[in-house]
Write a structure and sequence with these properties.
By secondary structure, this protein is α/β, with parallel strands linked by helices. It folds into two domains: 154 residues, HUPs (Rossmann fold), CATH 3.40.50.620; 129 residues, Riboflavin kinase-like (Elongation Factor Tu (Ef-tu), domain 3, Beta Barrel), CATH 2.40.30.30. 31% of the residues lie in helices and 29% in strands. It contains ten helices and 16 strands. A six-stranded parallel beta sheet has the order 1-4-3-2-5-8, with helices on both faces. A six-stranded antiparallel β-barrel has the order 11-12-15-14-13-16. The protein has a two-stranded antiparallel ribbon with strand order 6-7. Helix 1 links the parallel strand 2 and strand 3. Helix 5 packs across helix 6. The longest helix is centred in the last third of the chain and has 19 residues. The radius of gyration is 22 Å and the shape is elongated. Its EC number is 2.7.1.26, 2.7.7.2. This is Riboflavin biosynthesis protein. GO terms for molecular function: FMN adenylyltransferase activity; riboflavin kinase activity. It catalyses: riboflavin + ATP = FMN + ADP + H(+); FMN + ATP + H(+) = FAD + diphosphate.
């Protein structure tokens, strides 16, 4: 997959004709996948590459109107990985700035987008663009038609009476509902990170853990204990992971991620790993003795093994 960074809006490079999906696509959930999949399908029919036009950083981060997007469901590298899996051949990444946000709808279509030579556009029904985000998908279709570019508008995908959206997924993550998030994403929610040295308390308790430093600003599920699987050197391992502040030992607010890999022994320090969240076990709690904590961890491991039969790990 080719990734083309666009930092100069006046760039006159010879861009390749393609069928293009437009959107920010944080999460690349099942709604996004349907939209991108339609662009891939149309591109195949026309014998053209399928492309995506997206933005970095997240527009809401630049415009400062949403703290929720300071942490992303799919930071850049993860987004590119998933897009490639979906069959996207070219990704245009626009460096999003206040100046870009100030383009009128007409300037966006005629002064910028048309120079990328899209032979077709695919957008969601709720797509917004132009200064202040005041132009909608219908206006895009009308303006693009004047430039000779056909536009297909894709409808919403709903689950349980709600529109699937990045906002909904963030909400479910905040509840710790890993199973529902997996359904909405079409894959387990994942965090990539590096194993770092911790307090080594888990080893003393008989349950050695990998302390994980996320590689990017991921949106994390709520504090608690999860059934996860961990990818280490191209091999998956079942694990129990705790997200939280370790209240039994600390009165601090710093959140940490610690994974106890089941049936694994070895040195993981410095390894880049991928954690996929499969299920929520319980809330984080403070224990009044080390013995009580050990008994709970033992119970967590037993319950995790039972639930893992529902997943292919």
């Amino acid at each position: 997959m080719k990734i083309i960074q666009i930092t100069d809006l006046q760039d006159n490079a010879a861009f390749q004709p393609s069928v293009m999906a437009l959107g920010n696509f944080d999460g690349i959930h099942i709604g996004h996948q349907g939209l991108i999949g339609r662009a891939v399908e149309l591109a195949g029919q026309l014998g053209l590459p399928a492309s995506v036009l997206t933005f970095y950083p997240h527009p809401r981060q630049v415009l400062g109107n949403s703290q929720a997007h300071a942490n992303l469901l799919t930071p850049f590298d993860e987004k590119m990985r998933v897009m490639e899996e979906l069959g996207v051949e070219i990704v245009y990444v626009v460096h999003f700035t206040v100046a870009f946000a100030g383009l009128t709808a007409e300037e966006f279509i005629y002064g910028f987008l048309s120079r990328l030579h899209p032979q077709g556009l695919v957008v969601g029904f709720d797509y917004a663009f132009g200064r202040g985000g005041k132009a909608d998908a219908s206006m895009l279709k009308d303006l693009a038609a004047e430039a000779g570019i056909p536009v297909e508008i894709v409808g919403a995908v709903n689950r349980y009476g709600e529109k699937v959206s990045s906002t909904l997924i963030r909400e479910k993550l905040s509840y710790g509902d890993a199973r529902l998030v997996c359904e909405l994403l079409g894959r387990p929610y994942a965090v990539t990170g590096t194993v770092i040295h911790g307090e080594k308390r888990g080893r003393l308790l008989g349950f050695p853990t990998a302390n994980i430093e996320p590689l990017d600003s991921f949106a994390l599920p709520k504090n608690g204990v999860y059934v996860v699987r961990v990818l280490v050197k191209n091999e998956w391992h079942a694990a129990v992971l705790n997200i939280g502040t370790k209240p039994t030992f600390h009165d601090q607010m710093h959140r940490s991620l610690e994974a106890h890999l089941l049936d694994f022994s070895g040195d993981l320090y410095g390894e880049a790993i991928r954690v996929e969240f499969l299920d929520f076990l319980r809330d984080e709690k403070k224990f009044f003795s080390v013995e009580e904590l050990i008994a709970q961890i033992q119970s967590d491991v037993v319950e995790a093994r039972s639930r893992l039969s529902l997943f292919s790990v």
